[in-house]
Structures are given as C-alpha cells and as structure tokens.
Known about the structure:
The chain has four domains: about 100 residues, 2-Layer Sandwich (Alpha-Beta Plaits); about 55 residues, MutS, DNA mismatch repair protein, domain I, CATH 3.40.1170; about 55 residues, DNA polymerase, domain 1; about 100 residues, Dna Ligase, domain 1 (2-Layer Sandwich). About 35% of the residues lie in helices and about 20% in strands. It is built from 13 helices and twelve strands. Helix 4 runs antiparallel to helix 5 and helix 10 packs antiparallel against helix 11. The radius of gyration is 23 Å and the shape is globular. This is DNA polymerase IV.
Amino acid sequence: MNDAPRKIVHVDMDAFYASVEQRDDPALRGKPVVVARRGLRSVVTAASYEARVFGVRSAMPAVRAERLCPDAIFVAPDFARYKAVSQQIRAIFLRYTDLVEPLSLDEAYLDVTNVRGGLPSATATAEAVRAAIRDETGLTASAGIAPNKFLAKVASDWRKPNGQFVVTPRRVDAFLIPLDIGKVPGVGKVMKAKLHAMGVTTVGDLRGFEAAVLVARFGRWGQRLHELAYGIDERPVQPRRAASQVSAEDTLREDLPLAELTEHIQRLAEKTWANHRCKQSRVARTVVLKLKTSDFRTLTRSFTPQAPPDSAAAVAAIACALRDRVNDGAGARYRLVGVGLSGFVDAAEQPLQSNLL
C-alpha cells in the first residue's frame, strides 16, 4: 500500500444555477435571484448570494423565499443550459487529471496526486482550474485541497465565494478539532440534535466517544462518524461513475390520494424514460416508485420484471402497479411522487425485447 497521502481537490461552483442566470442576463447581475418557479408547492433550486443575504437557501419552499426577500427575481430553472455549462467545466478538469468524480452539475472531486502540466502543487492546480473556469465560462468556483475527499469537501466551503482553502496533513487536527459538528457531511438537523444531546457540538467533542459507543448509538453511521472525527476517509476518487438510478419526481400542488396519482406517474415515467435514453447506454431492469405522505413519511416500492421495460408506457404501467401495492389506509394523502429506473446492465448482456407490456 502507498503511504503517500493523496492530493484531493473538491471544486464547488459558486451559486451555480443562479450565477449562470446572472451571467446570461446582465439585468440580473447584482440582484437577488431565486431559481425556482413561483407557487405553493415550488422549492428553491438555487439562490444568488444577493438573495442569500436575506436567508434564502436552496431546498426552501418558494413561498418562504418570497416572504424573506420580497424583491427577489424568480427565474424558472433551465437544466439543459446548466448541464451544457457543467460539461464545459468538466472538460477543464480533465486537462489536469483523468481522476474526476462528478457529484452533481456543480461540484466534483479531482485526484491531483499525479497532476498533468508540471504544476508544483495541488494548491497551484486548484488555482489553475479555478482561473480557467473563470476565464472560459465567466463563472467562479471555490475549492478545498486536502489529503482526502471528506476534508476537501469541508474545506471548499471555507472561503466561499471564489476562494480556496488548504488542509495539509500536518494541519488536520488543528482544522478538525474546533469544527462545528454540523459541518460534517451527513450530519443534518436531526443528527446534529442527537449529537448535541450527547454534548457533542464540535468534532473535538466527538473524539471523546469510543467507536463502540457511537456504533451502539448510531449503527454503521457511528463507525463512520468515529473515522471522520479523526480525518480518516479512504474512499478513492471514482471517475466516470455510472448513475445507479435515473429518476424524476414532483412535489404536488396539493396532497392527493393514491387513486389520483395516475396522471402524475405517467408524466414522470415519460420524463424518466427520456432522461434514461439521453444519459444511459445501459439497460435498466428495475422500476422504482417513490411516494412521500402528507406527514413527510417516504415510501418506496420497486419491481424487476422478467424482461426490462422498453418504453415510457411500460415504465408507467409498472409504476402504477407498484402504486396499487401500497396499503397505507383509505385516508392517506401524498405530497410527492417520483418514478425511477435502476438495476442497470450493459446492453450486450440483455437480449433484444419487444412488446413487453
């Protein structure tokens, strides 16, 4: 095993979707921009830094964003345009290393342990990547540089926007010990509250608990927490990671009973099938139905037919059949529905099928 530490860069675009909108429409520059459709059931996709000053954040209900920032300019998302810019940025990454692991359209890990171009350090590489993004796309990015993915991701948030932060192997403890526990990826509001109840407000506090105690309390996640508390993360950067699922989901305008979800399921099946055909060269074998109840419980059902679905109609038919298997009481209402495809295999492994359903 190579004992030399990896050199990982986490690049995170600054308010990506909102920044693309501001770049492409000069009238939006310097204004509080919220990427979302207006409506009671709409959710904020992104917010410019001018909107964030008012407390607007992604995943927030659009109506709340409007209350917080009455002067916000709402722009409907244009994912085709964002994807095109993301591909341009990814091409920049690949000039410096083949080891690029995209996490979403606006962030990625780069392993620059062996970097191209004769740059002297991972820090210099991050600077060059960010400069190329700025010069070629007119957008800014922030970066974290560290010996592993966990530390690099946390560090990339340290000097946002348009900055970078380095955590060297020697400074891992100094960086981690005072770190707010809520900054650890995977520690959301619920987990943070549970840790606070144990007296854990910083990563240093977390180190006061043996791994066995954390495992007994949180299961496998407890072991992971123990490792992260000491900056341990052995996950490699995985380039060209194939999607494990292609899906589409919608939060409904009003909570609906199961019987009234058919049209929504059919529409989402068409969207999922189109995404699958555009993005995947492999064959999906499994159809997944996701439902969220009015009290925010999430239900999932899946089915793998003998032959893979070969059309949007086939996906919709299976998803509706999965819907009919849900037994959640006559009064149950649902606020979100999603349809997905998973279980991908290479096309060469599947015989051609027709007239499946």
